[in-house]
User: Fold these one by one.
Assistant:
Number 1:
Amino acid sequence: MANTTERRSFWGWGLAADEPTQADRDKLAGQLAERYGVEVNAGPTPTIDEIDLRPTRLTPPDSIAAFCSTDTWDRAEHTYGQAYPDRYKAFNRQFDNPPDVVAFPSSDDELAAAMDWCSEVGAVTIPFGAGSSVVEGTNVPDDRPTVTIDLRRLDQVLEIDETSRAARIQGGALGPAIEGQLRPHGFTLRHFPQSFEWSTLGGWIATRSGGHYATNHTHIDDFVESTRMLTPAGWWESRRLPGSGAGPSPDRMVIGSEGTLGIISEAWMRIQRRPSYRASAGMTFPTWEGGCEAVREIVQTKTWPANLRILDPGQAQADAGLDGTETLLIIGYESAELAQGDNIHTAVEIARGHGGLIDDEAIQVSGGDAKPTGRGGAVGAWRDAFIGIDMNTPVSLGLISDTFETAITWDQWPEFDAVVRDRMTKVLDEVCGGGRLSCRFTHVYTDGPAPYYTFVGMGSQGSELTQWNEIKQAANEVLIDAGGTVTHHHSVGRMHRPGYDRQRPDLFAEAYLAAKRAVDPQGLLNPGVLFDT
Amino acid sequence: MANTTERRSFWGWGLAADEPTQADRDKLAGQLAERYGVEVNAGPTPTIDEIDLRPTRLTPPDSIAAFCSTDTWDRAEHTYGQAYPDRYKAFNRQFDNPPDVVAFPSSDDELAAAMDWCSEVGAVTIPFGAGSSVVEGTNVPDDRPTVTIDLRRLDQVLEIDETSRAARIQGGALGPAIEGQLRPHGFTLRHFPQSFEWSTLGGWIATRSGGHYATNHTHIDDFVESTRMLTPAGWWESRRLPGSGAGPSPDRMVIGSEGTLGIISEAWMRIQRRPSYRASAGMTFPTWEGGCEAVREIVQTKTWPANLRILDPGQAQADAGLDGTETLLIIGYESAELAQGDNIHTAVEIARGHGGLIDDEAIQVSGGDAKPTGRGGAVGAWRDAFIGIDMNTPVSLGLISDTFETAITWDQWPEFDAVVRDRMTKVLDEVCGGGRLSCRFTHVYTDGPAPYYTFVGMGSQGSELTQWNEIKQAANEVLIDAGGTVTHHHSVGRMHRPGYDRQRPDLFAEAYLAAKRAVDPQGLLNPGVLFDT
């Protein structure tokens, strides 16, 4: 299947052509060696001829063979997502449990034929968008014969309803493909997760992806008008409606199903006119607590800023070059129709009441006939950092770097933060002999923030996976112990199961599993995700 | 149980003390006789000694007897909701299928004891909030022994978290009780369905009630932070979280469950500071189409007005005394923190662009230090009409008056409206020899409106139920045929089943039914609602 699109890396993030060079890696190795005072070995990146896969145990029948692959590259590429253990194992040439077959259907009929064959031969069936799961959501779960169904050929915006501001989009469309097809019509989906380039509409819906908007409509959930999903028992398709109160929402059972019920082949999505009015401010605070209180007051006034992201001093230093003592708050408003100057000034005044600092002339306002005002500053630096991350190199050099994210009500904040920091700092000390932990809010609600923690520590060569696992388990536990959710938008997958199993109501688990069995009686779809079977 | 609260009417809306007098009814009878040119007989309202109930078939054990009743009044009062057939039958002393026992638990333990007993004896179990279902959601479905569990004694706001703006509220709390307990703290839930006085938090959540806000967060769904529900298999309780992406939402399976999974005993709800800033405008349009286009443009600019309700000429005449040619649009903004003058002027300008008329001095703005500006006019008249409806008298005089509501994407509007009016006008002609049909939008989304139709026709004495049924079935059919939802916020109950069964995805029905069976294996909870069993 490799010749149908530009080949993706089989071991790392992005295209093979964009893999880091040895020079890039040597340079970072030198920096890390200096920073941590340890030897860092930038051994060569994997090549496909080094990869030895278990022979495939399935032979697709003639009826579907034309869009199925048992090629080594394809199977290796679909063995892992982008979780830390995935990247570690892939870099270290460990592909112990690859799928047997990768199917690339390019129509609903081909998709149905592939799933029918899986049901017929009892093959585990893994829905695959673009493989950027950070929770082991697309990995082969056990030693049963497995087919991964990759939706990359279902990548079209099929219909645009300009009057209702909605579009019918296929499940396998990547972020840039969606935006590219909407842009000529003046529209945008405006769903920009950090994985934007390598994640798909179907993946976003299946995992309750968190997107562009920091307030009000934060998850993809709120933009779904209807869904079309193929299950082993057939098609599950909801009616296109702007709102409904007819029983429990059929879409809300699909949203967050993480591939356990079926494969989302398309959805009608609410889209937006491309914004032309913008207003933003990057404000610093002498204290993290003051900044958080500003965020709470701003979100509770319900002017619904598109951006309301606060970075603690460590995060602000790493992402925006601040001095390591200041907290940074980025506030942004946008609209296709209305000037946003009043909104930004209101929010800035609230933030100033909590110690927030910004010069009036640094507040940026643009759009309409008015001349743009204000200058960039911290906002621009932050934006560049957000999309410019190298996902491939650090893990290959022994750095243990990962994130965990949650949500918690305001009454538990900042105590929740103190508990998390205390526990995780101790764990980093124990496991890595120290490390860094920082926090930002990715999304904010009237009743609480969604804090996102980043940790970094240096691993010991050969022990990194064990070390990572200790840290990750501690994170899972502290989030649940302290009252949060085990994930706000990265989804459950296989990695968050221990915390998730404690968090969800037991009877809900039983009820949803019964629902799954109704449409997937053999339990073939993505076992291990959400449930053991 | 009657002496524990002021007694409610056993046959009509509200308290027994508020039942219409014979003089009121004679007056309306005279008006109807004149309007329709028929004889209208205002026969006397029912008295409890006229009601003859089937003997009860269940005897509550001593352990729960103290909060259970087999009293005639209690059983009659719980036989019906407030649907047209309910009111018709109750007025006509037809109580063929009453519950055998009504339980009034006042704690979670009593609630569990009541449900356990139902499971033990295999009694059909009907959750009952305040009995204002208009879709036969609380009626006894068949001839099996039946226990109705009335939550009126679980009526407390248990906790207020002022920091997060959330409150823990019991499922049986009526609208006024909730507001009464929040008001001293400066908060409000701001959920004001037309049934506000006689509906409960648990009922709102179970039925996906549509509330105060015409845009953005329209259903109760969006205000639910967590739920606590008792099922026959035990408690289902979700974690209190401002947002989460951990698997499919457990709450969204409860929201809209209509009593088929369990009884919602309490929920953490997002609450609001009481608004102090308000801005509103009542605008007239020479055409219904122009007004609807104005609504679309206003909602798509996302300033999220709390009110954005448009009334067609017939509705505007009935509710606000306009002349029957003009369309009326009510726009309202509100906030606890920010002045809303700019928002209302923006919306008014958009509406003027579509032919909307209002004098500048009629735009009302109030709050803060500024002197209130503007005068009332059409807005005040409309508000009085909304809450002043006499639910009891018309049906007792032979008038067939009811509503149906839906939602549809903008691309189908106004063709959808034309199809509905054409079909329903013909049906009213055939069935009642004419009648009136009018429309308003109760809620509006960026991708479409939620139209709400009211119909009125004069029935033939003794045939009213058959006539109503013909009209209602036609409404169900035309909504589904034309692409809408069978209900936007009245819920499915038993009445909307024919349309609902066509509307929902078949596999979703199978999956949700399997989920129900996991927590209600005997199928005792509210059978007939959503599903046959």
Number 2:
Amino acid sequence: MNGKGRLFGIGVGPGDPELLTLKAVRLLRAAPVVAWFAKSGKAGHARRIADGYLAPDAGELRFTYPYTTEIPKRSDVYREAMAAFYDDAANRIAAALDGGRDVALLCEGDPLFYGSFMYVNDRLAARYDTEIVPGVTAMAACWSRAGLPMTRGDDCLSVLAGTLDEDTLAGRLQSADAAVVMKVGRHLPKIRRALDRAGLTGRAIYVENGSTPDERIMRLSDMPIDEAPYFSLVLVPTGRAAS
Amino acid sequence: MNGKGRLFGIGVGPGDPELLTLKAVRLLRAAPVVAWFAKSGKAGHARRIADGYLAPDAGELRFTYPYTTEIPKRSDVYREAMAAFYDDAANRIAAALDGGRDVALLCEGDPLFYGSFMYVNDRLAARYDTEIVPGVTAMAACWSRAGLPMTRGDDCLSVLAGTLDEDTLAGRLQSADAAVVMKVGRHLPKIRRALDRAGLTGRAIYVENGSTPDERIMRLSDMPIDEAPYFSLVLVPTGRAAS
């Protein structure tokens, strides 16, 4: 496209650096500019996963989230701050692309599945040649490590955000054949109540930091504390018997 | 484990051989025995994806499905034939493991997400040391290729089997924020009706053979015929606006 760089959204997988795809590694090694999102004061999970695969002379663009949990996600202040933040990230990436340099934006798990990449893609995909490399999701890594057959036959899988209110969560869990609850963190007590109401506590497995050296896997009912780290989720495998 | 081989369930991803993970490739190259499922008369999709990564002297175990669509999946005849088929597959794998050889069972997409691997795992995981390597799912490859932001914020994703009856499909689609309909094939007319009833036809994208040279992506309403190939699915991305 007339001398402009290409934008790559690269899924770097759930945490284990060996769970990158060959394609992700090939594109990262060749990328003149690498970009990523991180929380304030943190190295950035995606950046850490990709560490061994970047070109030594790659330029780096770091985007530090303005907030994490300080203000309510449904407030106008939050929404406006995040929109301005993504505008700025997109502008800085666009400047590199306009200069003819390809940019690889690192995405934990898969770029289009709850990823910040989407907000950059919204702003740039119409103007720049864009390619998205899918990644292994955190949920797939967690159910593999736990050895849980998740869905069989015509089972439906419901992927739910733990940030939903308790009634919505309980209702969706009641109608699920199998479920994954993402974004657990401080929502764990509410998620436990919703699972109880849906009669699913006995099938719920808690996984923390799946596929990393800090991984912990246990029945949710054995999880002793009520606040989980950010990289945790709850799996409810199919209730359908083996055949 | 006392001289027995290890069982590996290896997700080989959606079709593009570059979408295997580094870990999958490492384990495949080292595997003395490789096993896979295939339809009668076909080379086997998983086997074809993994073709470039197998050790030249690897032993091969092929398991040919006794049926595809010849008899109803809910019949006792089908269930019994499939149980006997998986018993035989598990027994042949167990014989290799008992002989001290590791076996890598190839799985399209991810092993525990609608995969035949689960039925072998059901039969062998308690007796043999088993490791499961997650893979990029077909749905992630398809939404990446289509460039569709699937889920934002606290959206739920509903993964549905196209084999469900029309009322069930329509009901589940009505309550979905975003959805994937797998196993499309000859169920396409019914899936179209269910999407219509849920008011989602305008958002539905059809993807066939995602990530392979035969890939086709179009609005479902532009799909001219009523029978889709096996490797096709319908994506309904979030209706939530960009922010």
